[in-house]
Design goal:
A: elongated, B: alpha+beta, six-stranded antiparallel beta sheet, four-stranded antiparallel beta sheet
């Protein structure tokens, strides 16, 4: 009996230390980088303007799709917008904008002022769909191919380097 | 220059520790009961050198010597002197120096204070303590050396994290370390006691004051951290069950259990192995807490730059502590057949220990569970306040009743001839609670029970206090601590039930009204400070009940080095309530988000904890005087 107890005590501590050891290598901050190479989830989007819906399977039609999460209240979104405008002229690439937790009127003014680069504009008024996508801050963009695999994730505003990276995939 | 000096001292300290271990072993085998002078001398030199080494590091911070990595990464020449100094221990490397200081100074003090105890017991304590010191010196030298040189010499430092630039946080680490690093000395003493079979009440006497001192400092350290979180982090709460807060609470539970069961060992010569286990567990939990905080496994305001090699080292050290403790206990454990009367003070002390172990396990499981699920199944979950509140608070009710009754019981065999007085106390507790709900506001059944049980403890402790004032008794320290704990729970209960919280957006010139308050954002000021720029909101709070108008000025601070925004709460405190306001900006909008809170009796929560810790200091002082 005593031996069993001793053995169990040892085992408990050993287990504890092994778990601690396993946790050491892990990145504890929530990071969506590890989604690269994985297939995106099946998610339904509501259209920004009407009652249409689009689901992620529709992206199979496109060679490449860049899903961009943005909002009118987000300063950095304004910064990256010219890059999205430039990308919108690429034939091989479809742009999907997801308007995140925004006021519809303000979002419209934003696009009115800066131009609308999106081939399809969806809304995510309460931010739920975006979370399923593994978004933790905006702006964020996801580049996927026609097999719906995530090729690249861009956390934060797109910059010139990102623009070149995307172009390299498109061409 | 300072870099070389620091490294030389660190290496000399390693040498001194090895010498101490060597000479101690030599003396263990020698005859005679007296420890030779040279051991005292080496131990004194060792503590002095380590202190000197620490002052070297502080000087490097004061003169902003950026050739040292710790200074470069955590200081800036434009920082106020006070924060240059506190920056010394506000980072991983520097704080390890604080660890080593407490390890060595406690080691020296334990050696010179406990002269009446057996030679071998003291020498083994010294040996174990020096093994711990060596462990930390190696950690500093080979992994986290604050004296590492930066080449080429940087022109400016990176600055100290702004939320750490705060007076409360400057004293928080030293206090907390005196608590949980201080527990190292009774870890070593417990190991020595197992080896030398020094297991009677005199062993209890040799560690009693160390347990009390570390407990008192731990209590203070937790308090200061909590006060800091209250006014700095801006959520308006004082305890969040954050894993890092829990890490400081776990050794506290073990210490509390320990000094209660030490009473039984001292008075009745019972529970020896249980006392030993608590001694060992306290320090192991402290090192585990350090591991969790320093390895980057937990995410919190304490997270030091994540570096897995650090975690690996502490984990290795922790494993050695755990397995050597288990090994010694298994080897020396003897089953003692003793019977304790179920109605005796011994039983009540054990009840205290059961409660403490229950709290300890609850908090431990809550803290480790998310780490387990993440490591084993990649599933990220978080265990938050609802879990702790649901599990811990109902049990507190029973605990408070036992805490009131326990001290009034007798050793060996008790008879409840004071049952009538308990019923009277209970009656008054219920009446006072009814009056509170009648005149102010009703609350849940659970809250009612918590308030009643805390009143029960308060009233019965007050009666004890009256007895002491009349007759004069040694028990004053206990009464103060128990009374303060009763008040603590009482004020937390009322604070919880009578708090008001309101969140809204407001722009300059606008007025908002809710409940009994009217709030106006009059204007905004911008002020330049030495190390930050502040946007100050000028809010006037009109209390419609008594017509009082207060002005509160919450701030948004923009720090330059490193570039960070912090939100400073504006708090107006009086004896009845705190008015608490934080302000944050909303991007691209003229509106500001205001969080308004009325927190009744906040100051009494802090005062209760101060008195609680004071009880510990008082008992230590009384013990020292008596011996």
């Amino acid at each position: 009996m005593q031996k069993t107890v001793k053995f169990l005590i040892l085992l408990t501590f050993l287990f504890l230390i092994i778990v601690f050891y396993l946790s050491l290598g892990k990145d504890n901050s929530y990071n969506t980088e590890n989604l690269i190479g994985k297939k995106i989830e099946l998610i339904y989007f509501e259209s920004f303007d009407n009652n249409d819906t689009l689901n992620t399977l529709d992206f199979k039609k496109n060679n490449l799709t860049l899903i961009n999460f943005w909002a009118s209240w987000c300063g950095p979104c304004r910064v990256e917008h010219p890059i999205l405008m430039k990308l919108s002229s690429e034939k091989n690439l479809k742009l999907v904008g997801v308007n995140f937790k925004d006021n519809k009127q303000q979002a419209k003014t934003f696009l009115g002022d800066l131009g609308n680069p999106y081939d399809f504009l969806a809304k995510d008024s309460n931010g739920k769909q975006s979370i399923n996508f593994g978004i933790y801050g905006i702006p964020e963009s996801i580049l996927i191919n026609n097999e719906l695999k995530i090729i690249k994730k861009f956390i934060g505003p797109l910059n010139k380097e990102d623009y070149k990276t995307i172009l390299a995939y498109v061409k | 220059m300072l870099s070389n000096l620091g490294n030389i001292i660190l290496f000399s300290s390693v040498f001194l520790s090895l010498t101490l271990i060597f000479f101690s072993f030599k003396e263990i085998n020698s005859t005679g009961e007296i420890i030779s002078k040279k051991i005292y001398k080496i131990s004194l030199i060792q503590s002095t050198l380590i202190l000197f080494c620490f002052f070297t590091l502080i000087s490097a911070f004061i003169i902003s010597d950026f050739s040292l990595i710790a200074v470069y990464q955590n200081s800036h020449s434009a920082k106020p002197l006070f924060y240059k100094i506190s920056g010394t221990w506000g980072n991983h490397e520097g704080s390890l120096m604080l660890w080593v200081i407490i390890l060595t100074v406690f080691s020296f003090l334990f050696l010179i204070i406990n002269k009446s105890h057996p030679k071998n017991y003291r020498l083994y304590t010294l040996i174990f303590q020096n093994i711990l010191i060596l462990g930390f010196l190696f950690f500093i030298l080979f992994n986290s050396n604050p004296f590492s040189a930066v080449k080429p010499l940087p022109a400016e430092g990176l600055g100290l994290n702004p939320i750490l630039q705060d007076p409360a946080l400057a004293i928080h680490p030293p206090l907390l370390y005196l608590g949980f690093v201080g527990s190292s000395i009774y870890f070593s003493a417990a190991m020595a006691s197992l080896i030398t079979n020094y297991s009677n009440k005199f062993f209890a006497l040799s560690i009693k004051n160390w347990v009390l001192i570390s407990w008192s400092f731990q209590t203070f350290g937790i308090l200061v951290g909590s006060i800091w979180a209250y006014y700095e982090l801006g959520w308006g709460g004082f305890w969040f069950w954050d894993p890092v807060e829990n890490a400081s609470l776990l050794p506290w539970f073990a210490m509390t259990a320990l000094f209660h069961s030490l009473l039984v060992l001292e008075k009745r010569n019972l529970l020896y192995f249980w006392v030993i286990i608590l001694c060992l567990i306290t320090f192991i939990l402290s090192v585990m807490g350090t591991f969790l905080v320093r390895s980057g496994i937990l995410n919190s305001v304490h997270t030091f730059a994540s570096d897995p090699s650090r975690g690996l080292y502490i984990l290795f050290f922790l494993s050695i502590l755990i397995f050597s403790s288990i090994f010694l206990i298994f080897k020396k454990y003897k089953k003692n057949d003793y019977s304790i009367n179920s109605n005796s003070k011994e039983t009540f002390v054990l009840i205290n220990n059961w409660f403490m172990m229950f709290y300890l396990l609850t908090v431990l499981i809550g803290t480790l569970y998310p780490i387990f699920t993440d490591a084993l199944s990649n599933n990220k979950i978080s265990v938050g306040p609802p879990f702790y509140n649901a599990v811990i608070f109902p049990i507190v009710i029973l605990f408070l009743f036992f805490m009131a009754i326990g001290p009034k019981t007798k050793w060996i065999k008790n008879n409840f001839n004071n049952l009538k007085s308990f019923i009277v106390i209970l009656f008054f507790s219920i009446v006072i609670n009814l009056l509170i709900t009648f005149f102010f506001k009703s609350y849940t059944i659970l809250s009612n029970l918590i308030i009643i049980s805390s009143l029960f403890l308060i009233i019965s402790s007050l009666l004890d206090l009256k007895q002491i004032l009349i007759r004069g008794k040694f028990d004053l320290a206990r009464v103060i601590s128990h009374l303060s704990f009763g008040f603590l729970i009482f004020f937390i209960g009322l604070n919880h039930n009578f708090s008001i919280e309101k969140d809204f957006n407001i722009k300059v010139g606008e007025t908002k009204s809710f409940e009994d308050y009217q709030i106006e954002l009059k204007n905004l000021e911008i002020k330049d400070h030495q190390n930050y720029k502040a946007i100050i909101g000028n809010l006037s709070i009109n209390d419609l009940v008594n017509g009082e108008i207060k002005t509160l000025k919450p701030e948004i601070r923009i720090y330059d080095k490193p570039k960070t925004l912090t939100y400073e709460a504006a708090i107006k405190t009086n004896f009845l309530k705190d008015i608490y306001i934080t302000m944050s900006n909303i991007d691209r909008s003229e509106f500001y988000n205001i969080k308004f809170q009325k927190k009744p009796l906040m100051i009494w929560i802090w005062i209760s904890v101060i008195c609680l810790a004071f009880g510990g200091f008082l008992r230590t002082f009384q013990n020292a005087k008596n011996s």
